[in-house]
Amino acid sequence: MGAVLVAEFAAATVLISGGTAAVPAHSASSSSSVVVDGRTVRLVSLGGARTDALLTRVGADIGGAVTAVEGFWGTDWQREIVVVATDSDAQFVDYAHLDQRQQWTDIAAVSVADEVDLAGRRTSGQRIVLAPGAAAMSDSALRIVLAHELFHFAARADTALDAPRWLTEGVADFVARPPSEIPADVTTALPSDAALDVRGSERAAGYDRAWWFARFVADAYGIDGLRRLYVAACGPGHDDLPAAVRQELGVEMDGLHMRWAQWLTAGRHSR
To answer: Vertex 115, ends 147 and 146: CA angle to 5°?
Structure first.
């Protein structure tokens, strides 16, 4: 997504009682709902006309995001979706439970849960929180952000807290982003979590490499192979990546890396 970066966070707590989608106990400027494919989407506006307008766009685009996520992940995930549009950095940090000491101005949105019970496949307080800058995004960028975050939302109850972030991000981008040309100078190194923790263009490159890897796996082993790899490498009690690759893709890491490098070399054009 270029300069538009997305991060995901989940609270490492245990859900004791069954939960429905909720937002922190603050007074919202306005709230409305739409129904998409049998799912209720709550739109919470915290900034008056400015965030109302953004959520009108969200309401128009969320159906496409639901279709994209269901097409990859299936339909067995939370039926109520909450999207919160914030109007200030302070609101964004508060509703997204972010560290106030850090800088979040390059973040477009987060998908966050207050509580996650992986054993029971339940979550509480799940929501997609849009940063103030989201109002200025183009329609195409907003659609990508919504689908990306909605994948994390859908997969939250099936994603371990210690899952490799680069793989969760790459798969989310695979669901959300249309294919585009691969630059000629891209490295053939495998993606890593460390590449997502830097700032600026290097972080954007880390997200792109994770996305390309997900595209490669889907091309080489099928979309179902990518989904199986996600479950094996990112799900509760997951294997390490080499074991997951061996089990689900039938190849050792050396062989996978070789095929990945070949794919990059041969695929520096739109796929």
So the answer is: 10
Q: Report yes or no: 248 and 232 within 8 Å, Cβ to Cβ.
A: yes
Distance CA 15, CA 117 (A): 5
Which residues of the chain fall short of a pLDDT of 50? 1-21, 25, 27, 269-271
What domains are defined for the chain? 30-158 (1.10.390.10), 175-266 (no CATH)
Total-model pTM: 0.87
| pLDDT tens, residue by residue, 215-264 | 999 999 999 999 999 999 999 999 999 999 999 999 999 999 999 999 99
Whole-angstrom Cα distance, residue 149 to residue 123? 15
Distance CA 19, CA 114 (A): 10
- φ and ψ of 43, to 5 deg: -115, 110
Task: Give per-residue burial for 71-86: e unless 16+ CB within 10 Å, then b.
Answer: ebbeeebbeebbbbbb
CA 164 – CA 177 distance, rounded (Å): 20
Helix/strand number for the chain, H first, E second:
8, 7
- Residue 245: predicted pLDDT: 98
